[in-house]
Write a structure and sequence with these properties.
The chain is of the alpha/beta class. Helix content is 38%, strand content 15%. It is built from 9 helices and 7 strands, in the order βαβαββαααααβαβαβ. Strands 1-2-3-4-5-6-7 form a 7-stranded mixed β-sheet. Helix 9 links the parallel strand 6 and strand 7. The structure holds adenosine monophosphate and manganese (II) ion (3 copies). One manganese (II) ion binds next to loops.
């Protein structure tokens, strides 16, 4: 069964509408897809209509930013009840911070001579009524469009992180809180892309110990970027920490992205998976 449990639409920092995303999923032979936009579930209603039309099982998800030891990590809430008030109150805090942060990022970029960064990033919204969230991806795409940087990696090397122009101290809620919102909403909390945090191996181990203690239940073992070595390492971590294994492309749909929706390397067979624990079929 072809399953992809991590994807984005233009309700956060993806390029496609939920309808376009589900059409692409159909095209790629996906039987189940989780839409997991950053800090919002607003795309799920449209996604559900498109999923029903295409005969795809849509899993309601969200990718929530969180702080652990003052660093940002991403926690997927898979199969959440999006109407849960605790989850929505939490997400609202992050949505509010994102708006303040966008204005601060623009101020930082202005000091480097980049004018009207906020307005220009907003202009990238494909549907201004629905794409109301401004993420760092929007700022990055704007800097590429303006010819300041060549690609996403170049942007994040020069801007938008740490003390660099446009870098803003992250003020997400703590990992334990975020896991609690997901659990309260009946979801499975999954640590996204464990090797993308630039943590040492030992620190990834400590992160997963803390995550499990907080009520975390799974870890992404196969992502759109994983090579065979990373899959083996992540599989070992899943076993060691007794976490369910997940697989998701983290597809965003921007030009130049090489991840493909629903096209993932296979999951090592002996692992217990997230989809075994939710009724997908
Ligand atoms: P935000 O949640 O607004 O802080 O934006 C984070 C998003 O930026 C991530 O979810 C990625 O989609 C994107 N991103 C971060 N670092 C990079 C990078 N080095 N290359 C490409 N995209 C990145
Ligand atoms: Mn993203
Ligand atoms: Mn992420
Ligand atoms: Mn993601």
């Amino acid at each position: 069964m072809r399953i992809d449990l991590h994807s984005h639409s233009y309700y956060s920092d993806g390029f496609l509408s939920p309808t376009e995303l589900l059409d692409l999923a159909k095209n790629h032979g996906c039987e189940a897809l989780c839409l997991s936009d950053h800090d919002t579930t607003n795309g799920l209603d449209e996604a559900q209509i498109a999923a029903d039309k295409n005969g795809i099982k849509l899993i309601h998800g969200v990718e929530i930013s969180a702080l652990w030891q003052n660093q940002t990590v991403h926690i997927l809430g898979i199969d959440v009840d999006k109407t849960n008030p605790i989850l929505q109150a939490g997400l609202k805090k992050h949505q509010d911070f994102r708006e303040i942060r966008a204005q601060e990022m623009a101020k930082g970029l202005l000091r480097s001579g980049i004018k009207q960064a906020y307005e220009k990033s907003r202009e990238l919204a494909r549907n201004p009524e629905k794409s109301t969230m401004l993420t760092r991806t929007h700022f990055a795409q704007m800097l590429i469009k303006e010819g300041v940087c060549k690609n996403m990696n170049a942007v994040f090397k020069r801007f938008l992180t740490g003390n660099k122009p446009g870098g803003v101290l992250p003020q997400w809620q703590e990992m334990v809180e975020v896991v609690d919102w997901i659990r309260q909403a009946g979801g499975i909390a999954v640590m996204a892309h464990p090797f993308r945090y630039r943590f040492s191996r030992a620190k990834v181990g400590r992160l997963l110990t803390a995550f499990k203690a907080a009520g975390g239940q799974g870890v992404e073992v196969v992502t759109g970027n994983s090579d065979e070595g990373e899959i083996k390492l992540a599989a070992a971590l899943a076993r060691q920490h007794d976490l369910l294994a997940s697989a998701g492309s983290d597809y965003h749909g921007w030009q130049g992205e090489y991840r493909q929706l629903g096209r993932l390397k296979p999951m090592p067979e002996t692992l217990k998976t997230v989809w075994d624990n939710i009724s997908i079929i």
